[in-house]
Amino acid sequence: MNVRLFIAVEITGETRKKLTAFQDKLKKAGADVGWVAPENIHITLKFIGSLDEGKIDAVTNIIKDSVTHIQPFNLDYSGVGVFPAPRNPRVIFAQAIDTGGVLARIHERLDNQLMSLGVEHEDRKFDAHLTVGRVKSRRNVAGLMESLNAYQGFRFGLERITQVVLMKSDLTPEGPVYTKLHSVDLAS
Questions:
Q1: Is 121 a catalytic residue?
Q2: Is the pTM of this model over 0.85?
Q3: Can 42 be counted among the known catalytic residues?
């Protein structure tokens, strides 16, 4: 049986609270946005997609190999933005500042090694971020961008990253339900 998988870095309750307050402020703009449930906010290191359940152990071993010799590190969640561009926002996010490029290194290792399991290689550059919403239409986008601009440089939190997780995603009419399958600790 196939399962839908991704590899992520989770956030703590304190950062999650600030992100929820940020979402609540943006909601007041009345834009047509699908908001990410606060408990689902995370950094996606690598989206795997649909994969045979029998390969989960192999994925876990690839994660372990990808974080070998990587020490726990700090991530600063500061600032906000949109993809692909402010004139045409599709994704609203809080920025994850990875000054040492650790997440990009882990992503690259994962991306290269997962190809052995048939997972597609990503061509686009890795950009660490926390997706908080997806814009569905142009309704009230100007007001949304105005609210968003008030958060430029806002600091959501500084966190110590000590593990990477393998998540299963079940799509439901109410939105995705994420289940943690494995946690892999960084070198200590």
A1: no
A2: yes
A3: yes
